[in-house]
Amino acid sequence: MSTDLWQQGWLRTARHVPSPNFGPRPAGSVIDLAVVHSISLPPGVYGGDEIERLFTNTLDWSAHPYFEQIRGTEVSAHFVIRRNGEVLQFVSVLDRAWHAGRSTWAGRDNCNDYSVGIELEGLEDTPFDPPQYAALATLLRALRTLCPLRGVMGHEHIAPGRKRDPGQAFEWPLLQADLTWHDVAFPAST
């Protein structure tokens, strides 16, 4: 583990916003998958603190009609990447964040057990911003100093039919070209 980048699973360069929504990984888990998601709260609104509040169980459910639909939800991700490229971390990579739900990858269920969840501030059908791609590539490179990543997938790929993020607007070829990782699985081109 690179001590320059990480301290007990926390990325030194990220803004830390600890979430209570996590648990231990099963004994012997190998963290070898990164799952890319998209989120905005309320949908289509960017730049507020609502994502942070959702992941820390402090969201005011009455502040927007959409929030009533998700009232009581207890979720988290390891990271959120804002539209401007700012990286927030909610859960230590060494712990299990609650981001994937029912999911399967490479013949294994329960992706939360062995993955890192990365949320991009955005919507499935709206282009993501260049600083987000740059921050995501930098984050994935840093993660690879800590974890033996074998795959980078979207939520839609590990929970098909149930989830559709990061969605059709996410440019997988752009990320792959930036990373130039030939030993890591990415979603097949569509």
Which residues sit in consecutive blocks of at least 5 with pLDDT less than 50?
A: none
Give a count of the beta strands, DSSP E runs of length 2 or more: 12
The side-by-side strand order for the widest beta sheet comes to 3-7-6-11-5-12
- What structural class do helix, strand and pairing data support? alpha/beta
Major β-sheet annotation: 6 strands, mixed
Write down the secondary-structure element order.
EEEEEHEEEEEEHEHH
- Give the averaged pLDDT, no decimals: 96
Distance between the termini: 35 Å
Morphology call:
globular
Q: Measured on Cα atoms, how large is the radius of gyration?
A: 15 Å
Amount of helix = 10-25%
Q: How many helices does DSSP assign?
A: 4
Strand content: 15-25%
What's the structural blueprint in terms of helices and strands?
Elements: E1 6-7, E2 10-11, E3 15-16, E4 22-23, E5 33-39, H1 50-55, E6 79-81, E7 87-89, E8 96-97, E9 104-105, E10 108-109, E11 115-121, H2 130-144, E12 151-154, H3 155-158, H4 172-179
Parallel strand pairs: 3-7, 5-11, 5-12, 6-11
Antiparallel strand pairs: 1-2, 4-8, 6-7, 9-10
Helix pairs in contact: 2-4
